[in-house]
Each structure stands twice: as C-alpha cells, then as structure tokens.
Amino acid sequence: MRLKELALHLGLSQTTVSRALNGYPEVNEETRQRVLDAARRYDYRPNASARRLATGRNNAIGIVLPTDRNLLLDPNYIEFQAGLGERLMKDEIDIVLSPSRAGDEMATYRRMAISSRVDAVIVSSPTFNDPRISLLTELGLPFVVHGRSESPIPHAWLDIDNEGAFRHATQHLLDLGHRRIGLINGETRHTFAAHREHGFRKALAEHGVAAEESLIAEGVMTDETGYRITARFLAQTPRPTALLVSSMMMSLGTLRAIRSAGLELGRDISLIAHDDVIPFLNPDAMVPTMSTTRSSIRAAGTRVAELLMEIIADGRAPASIHELWPVDLVIRRSTGPAPRD
C-alpha cells in the first residue's frame, strides 16, 4: 500500500498521514494513533527516500570498524551491537559500518559527515582526550561516547563505574586477608582500564597496602594475554594469592595458567573477573563458579541507541547526557580467604 492509498482509506490528506507517521507534534494523538493502527493493519512501509525528504534524516547510525582488529569475532562488540540493533530496529534505523585501516579513522569520520549518509555515530573505547570528540564536534555530526573521555568539549556519554567496581572488588579481597593481589588489565590508554587501575590502587592505599608494581599488567583482552600475564605472576616468589582480571575472555587464560601451575582456584588463589554478561561465558557455569563485577554490555548498547534517538529525533542537548551506571559485585566460589603461609 502506498501513502496515497492509505490516506484515501483513512479519509485524511497525505500530508496529515505523513506527519502522523513521522511523529510531528501538530498531529493530535487520536489521529496519530488511528494512522499508526491502519499502517500496522495494512502492513504499510514508507518509501525510504520519501521518508528521508520528509524528516530530513537518513535513518542510519554510523560505526567505524577498524580493520586491524577483527571485532566481528569479539563477543563484547557483538553483544553491544545486538543491544544497539534491538532498539534501533523499533524505529527502522539502520546501522552503517564503515571499515577503516589503522591511522585512517579520522578520515573515515570526515567522509561520513561529508556524505551525509548517517544521522549520528557511536564512539567506542575512548581515550583520555579523545581526538574524535573534537573532530565530530567540529564536523557537526552528532555522537554518543560509549565510555568516558576527559575531553573539555561538552559531549554525550554513557559509562559504567569502572573505578568503583574494581575498588569494591579489591576491598573484598583485602577483607578476605589477601595482600599480594595482581591486576590483569586492559590497555590503560583507554579510560575504562585506567579507571579500573585507579580503583584498584585506591582500595590498596585505603588499607595501607603497597601496590606491587610487578603484579600490575595490561594488554589486549584475550585469553592468550590472560594466560601469559598470569603465568608470569605465578612464577614470582612469593606468588600472588588473588587476581583481578578485566574481562571474562582474559579470565579463560588465567584459569588455564592457574591449573597448569597445579593450583586450586578458590583455595590456593582467588579470582574476580569483570563480566559483561556474554551468553556463552556464564560465570555460574564455570567450575568453580566465578566471582565477578557485572554489567551488561548489551543493555549499554540498547541505552546508547535510546540516547542517540533522543538527540537526533527529540533534539536533546548532548551536553545534558552523562550516565554513569553502577556495577554489581557478585561473589561466587572462585574467591576465598587468603591461604596461610
């Protein structure tokens, strides 16, 4: 069914029907609901080109996809995209992935702005003074940062309380009597990892415990990195009695290293990992069950989509969007009292 036919069926002008479908405020609620009910009943789908002309929007959100990292195999990336897509699908908004070689990301954002293919973009894995924020602001391309940056330029962001999460996790281990605690972190050029290290150090300082620099390490969050760093930590004398790990993927390597060393998790050494709530990495299904700091990255994707719609459809000021989500600490069997010497 075309717009003209839908309008004739309803006895309304094409302009009124179009405005009702696109949410214009001058259409009263009773008429809007009548139009929407009829559109659903007759499975009406607006012509994409006509819709763009009517709303002035492309109905697409842009994401730059670095080709030097295979993010399509990264479970965190996939879960975030799933949450994002679920919400955008309700408004028939597409996701446009723009591949970018290492070092070309800024040029890719410029092309996206000049071509006017998307209404807004998402900035992920921000650094402390992320140059993408100043560029996108200069280009006038709306965006939401998933994470936080220390950029002085007002911008929209959604983040989890990484510092508080790792401070509370470290406090729990200290309360169990642990003093030699290792941190296996993501790359601290990213603010989330720097905040986690700060929370870790803050908890140690509050308990009068000096941080062991040889037990603090960072790297790409893969199981191989987790294995390599853990093996290095466990080779020290004395070895750590507890570990904090920045992702469940890294913790898989940590578990391999612990078992290779002949240690029993929860008795000889304790472990807390950050859980982004990935379906196939269920801490309750591990043996022993894994203590975690927990925050759903899929839920974050959904909320970022909602915030983008508030900016591009409702005109909300990006500078008013600052959301910091609390993180749960879930204690399971991978943590226990510090072993006696």
Going by helix content, strand content and strand pairing, the class is: alpha/beta
- Percent strand equals 15-25%
Question: How many distinct beta strands?
Answer: 12
- Average pLDDT works out at 92
How far apart the termini lie comes to: 78 Å
What order do the SSEs take from the amino end to the carboxyl end, as H and E?
A: HHHHEHEHEHEEHEHEHEHEEHEE
Global shape:
elongated
Amount of helix: 40-55%
Radius of gyration: 24 Å
Q: Give start-end ranges of low-pLDDT stretches.
A: none
Strand order of the largest sheet: 2-1-3-4-5-11
Outline the biggest β-sheet.
6 strands, parallel
**Helix count from the secondary structure assignment:** 12
Q: How is this structure best described in words?
A:
The structure is a single chain. This protein has 341 residues and is an alpha/beta fold. It contains 12 helices and 12 strands. Strands 2-1-3-4-5-11 form a 6-stranded parallel beta sheet, sandwiched between helices. It has a 6-stranded mixed beta sheet with strand order 7-6-8-9-10-12, sandwiched between helices. Helix 9 (191-206) links the parallel strand 6 and strand 7 (216-218). It is elongated. The model has no long low-confidence stretch (mean pLDDT 92).
Features:
17% strand; six-stranded mixed sheet; 12 strands; 42% helix; alpha/beta; 341 residues; six-stranded parallel sheet
